[in-house]
Design goal:
alpha/beta; UDP-n-acetylglucosamine1-carboxyvinyl-transferase, Chain; 2 domains; 4-stranded mixed β-sheet; 26% strand; binds shikimate-3-phosphate; 3-phosphoshikimate 1-carboxyvinyltransferase; EC 2.5.1.19; aromatic amino acid biosynthesis
Length: 442
């Protein structure tokens, strides 16, 4: 098992660009594969999750070239051009990959099986199986709606008008992608708006779609009337990866760090609002559009933070950033309260439980609730003899969050089971060291 030894380093400084956005990279591979013609993707995330999605489409008969790192040339086969695979399609660790693929594959003429790693095999798929079944899909799962998913091809799909029971961009996207193969319109309504990359990218690829925050309506393509047109995609740097450095520089005295070209889609930047409410010093510089998405350079300097009640309305806009927020909260003055975040229990790990357990090992009081936690800040005190080992439970965001915590800790400790950092943020360790982190392989 791969572990890190983490310890206080130097104040963070420098200018870095974190890797490409994971959500955009998954969707770019999918839509480019289903388009007519050749699309180029630049800034592609070379993470295990997004590479798994690319490998799935290669297995389905799509030619995908990689002229250089972070670039892909995708030879789209058109909406009806995928070929079935007798082998199971491996989504790795990626909930996004599996749920969106369920939508695409529900509309094919052939059968498919979607599998994932141990973590993904425990994640709930009923949330896509149920509404896709309402559209006419036939999907078998393991007991409890767990992967593997066996998707029966050759089903005629019909559009539905569906209100999501939980705010989930993955479920919304699965339905919109199935909607491309359906008769009639597919409408998705959300209890709270979630990231809209699928909608924006469908529109960029020329598909008829209307959307506004909380609502999307896609025209069905069962009659072959509509097509996706090959389109180049420029992927912004992933806000969720930048988030670790936003928190780290905010809590490490003397830090002054610049993060370049970070994707600033408002459905992703809830952490920025939360950190600012806590008193963080983060400037947005050179705000511009790149590849249809807002991007900015973010300058972050150390600032003393205070605890807050995280507004429930911004929870979906920072859903992947709670592990990092928990570290900011542990380093603040006063209690931070998180509520309305039960979704954290069904990510790569139960993130409320894994963050609470790890922080307690550092001497921090965390009162967990079913949908959140109260984090009582204090000095981060692992065992003085270096024997503390915090288990990330194979969850990339937990591992990176405790690497930040170590920079403020009173002694070194070990972060265990960190290999999955490569799913979303390959090269985190060397980038972190470059800007000042104390971090090495165990
Ligand atoms: O659509 C996406 O790309 C994602 C949606 C979110 O999941 P949910 O849809 O389960 O909220 C998020 O946690 C995940 O990292 C990426
Ligand atoms: C939840 C995440 O991803 P996914 O659902 O794609 O596994 C994440 O990256 O934090």
């Amino acid at each position: 098992m791969k572990d890190w030894i983490v310890a206080p380093g130097a104040p963070l400084s420098g200018r870095i660009r974190v890797p490409g956005d994971k959500s955009v990279s998954h969707r770019a591979i999918m839509l480019a594969s289903l388009a007519n013609g050749v699309s180029r993707i630049d800034g592609f995330l070379e993470g295990e999750d997004t590479r798994a999605t690319a490998a799935v489409f290669q297995r389905l008969g799509v030619k995908i070239e990689s002229p250089s790192a972070q670039s892909r040339i995708v030879h789209g086969v058109g909406l009806q051009g995928l070929r079935g695979s007798v082998d199971a399609l491996d989504c790795g660790n990626a909930g996004t990959g599996m749920r969106l693929l369920a939508g695409v594959l529900a509309g094919q003429a052939f059968d498919s099986t979607l599998v994932g790693d141990a973590s993904l095999s425990k994640r709930p798929m009923r949330r896509v199986i149920d509404p896709l079944s309402k559209m006419g899909a036939r999907i078998d799962s393991e007991e409890g709606g767990l992967p593997p998913l066996r998707i029966h091809g050759g089903q005629a799909l019909t559009g539905i008008d569906y209100t999501l029971p939980v705010a989930s961009a993955q479920v919304k996207s699965a339905l919109l992608l199935a909607g491309l193969y359906a008769e009639g319109e597919t409408i998705v309504r959300e209890p709270h708006p979630t990231r809209d990359y699928t909608e924006r990218m469908l529109s960029a690829f020329g598909w008829p779609i209307e959307f506004e925050p909380g609502f999307a309506r896609v025209r069905g393509g069962a009659d072959g009337r509509h097509a996706l047109r090959a389109t180049d995609v420029s992927v912004p740097a992933d806000f969720s990866s930048a988030a670790f450095f936003l928190v780290a520089a905010s809590v490490i005295p003397g830090s002054d760090l610049l993060l370049e070209a970070v994707g600033m889609n408002p459905r992703r930047t809830g952490l920025l609002q939360a950190l600012r409410l806590m008193g963080a010093d983060i400037e947005e510089l050179n705000v511009r559009k790149a590849g249809g998405e807002a991007v900015a350079d973010l300058r972050v300097r150390f600032a003393p933070l205070r605890g807050i009640d995280v507004p429930e309305g911004i929870v979906p806009d920072m859903i992947d950033e709670f592990p990092a927020l928990f570290i900011a909260a542990a380093c603040a003055e006063g209690v931070t309260r998180v509520r309305g975040a039960a979704e954290l229990r069904v990510k790569e790990s139960d993130r409320l439980a894994t963050m609470s357990a790890g922080l307690r090992q550092l001497g921090i009081r965390v009162d967990e609730t079913p949908d959140g936690a109260d984090i009582h800040p204090g000095p981060l005190q692992p065992a003085a003899d270096g024997s503390t080992r915090i288990d990330s439970h194979g969850d990339h965001r937990i591992a990176m969050s405790f690497a930040i915590a170590a920079q403020r800790a009173e002694a070194m400790f070990v972060v265990g089971d960190i290999a999955n950092v490569a799913t979303s943020f390959p090269g985190f360790d060397s980038l972190a060291r470059d800007v000042g982190f104390g971090l090495r392989d165990a």
